[in-house]
Batch of 2 targets.
Target 1
Amino acid sequence: MTAPTTPAGVWERIRRGVPPSAEQVGEVAAAEAARLGAEGTTVLHRELAGSVLGLGPLEPLVADEAVTDVLVNGETVWLDRGHGVERAAVTLDGPEAARRLAVRLAALAGRRLDDATPFVDGLLPSGIRLHAVLPPLVDGGAHVSLRVPRRRAPDLATLHSWGMVDAEGTDVLRDLVRARAALLVSGGTGTGKTTLLGALLAEVPADERIVLVEDVRELSVRHPHVVRLQGRGANVEGRGVIQLEELVRQALRMRPDRLVVGEVRGREVRDLLGALNTGHEGGASTVHANTARDVVDRVVALGVLADLSREAVLSQLSGAVDVVVHLGRAGGRRVVEEVAVLDGGAALAVVPALRREGDRLARQAGWPRLRNLVGGRR
């Protein structure tokens, strides 16, 4: 059977940013029952559902449990299985096919994507995070980025078996969570910050309540008591936005034992630092930074955006965060490069306590301070 053509009425809804429904797909397939027979109707329904409700040609890629990212660059498709980006065997049938895919996925996420709104962030019903951009903002056809959540969140022991962190580093991270140290997980894009944060939160005692704030749901946490707050983008009329800074304030009213912000990247840094300075121990977040020592400048820059002075941010950060865990890539693997402590002296500094040397984390100048944070257990 040839690839099904999306019916005009369904496609018009998609262009308006209105997601199609399974009922509509069923009605279209049923209308062909007399011509195709029962078996042909079943096949048509399955193919239409894949092309209208699913990911179409990308479905086999996200079905691979090792795949964390699928990237469409116009006609070409790339993926990441945790060892760097590689070319996929799938290709799209030209720029128009890429545009149809991008617009349709945006509609499934409840967003509108067209020439007036040529880029979009959203969450697909399956939990996959979507970002899409249309020409002329990007060359060579529509570009789509899919961040695929892991089906089962790995714990620290699993990350150790993968080579992300050595045995001593695994024990130290576990002890830091149990000691209620406040943590920032830093690193570049695709280094495993969200994966590590989820593994750390799995170590939180079962009788504690985690309140988790995210812009778009990405964190997978194996814990019995997780409350999730998720930001909301504008609807197709451009209304209804709810920012992370408001959600952080709401989270503080929900009796969190651990306050977690999936990624701090804007004005919410002000409320997070304030919360961690007022008795909310054991909080955590991730932040983009090239090195562990860059974290202070990165947080200062975010604080300035939130109308805080540099001095105020440094003062808040010194009292709010105990440890920075920095991730990178080595030999195609995501690895813990450094575990560092914050030294709240005259000039706030990030002091390495453990630093990757070969396949192990070696003790550095900040080790005694880190050891004190975990009650001398190491």
Target 2
Amino acid sequence: MKSIKPAEDTYKWKQKSYSVIFESDTPAGQRFDIILLWTIILSVIVVFLESVPSLRDRYGYEFRILEWSFTILFTIEYIFRLLSVAKVSRYAFSFFGIVDFLAILPTYLALLIPGSQYFLVIRILRLLRVFRIFKLTHFLKQADILKVALSASREKIAVFLLTVLSIVVIIGTLMYVVEGPSNGFTSIPISIYWAVVTLTTVGYGDISPQTPFGQFLASLVMITGYAIIAVPTGIVTVELAEAARRGTTVRVCPNCAKTGHDADAEFCKYCSEKL
């Protein structure tokens, strides 16, 4: 019995810590997240102000103290997040886990690489938690639907991108043969660059065909560009409609910390943990 007691205490501590750090349904959890958000905002403001030369020259020492204070706080918070989850690797390699890690990394890197501390502005991504904190669950739900739709579309999008890549390689090679270096198409890679710019309807104008056949081919590429743009839109739209029909919930899995589960789900679809 004595050996079981510490294990039970650890489990209870993890549950309580998880509910405070990862959930916002309790007063303690909401207070923690609101304090965290204000701390993130202040830390990002410090990074912005520190990049102003006149302020850096005058308050550089104070900025460094504040920067290290915020980094130490976020480091402690990150460690507690790792300790409170069931599987450390699943949180560490999740979206927010990576963002939380990148939020503290630049300050330590600045000891070796001067100037890398400005990448601390990535901390602003942590403000995405505001949707859960202020009970804007309808926004978060729509974000989950979009995430599910994009995930379901990835194979179709991959095939589409491979097709587009083949098209621009063929068109770029043709334009190199037709126009040649005298008209600015000095190599096949440069010609492929022109094909990408033209097919996406960006049209920088730094290179343009001069021969009648080249201009005719460019016209076909421009028209094809409008048709190609509609393809990924249609793919994602279909998956969005399907994801919205199934419905999702904003519940957070206590094991892998992922959301986006179906509304009637009893178990996590990522790790099979009971919700």
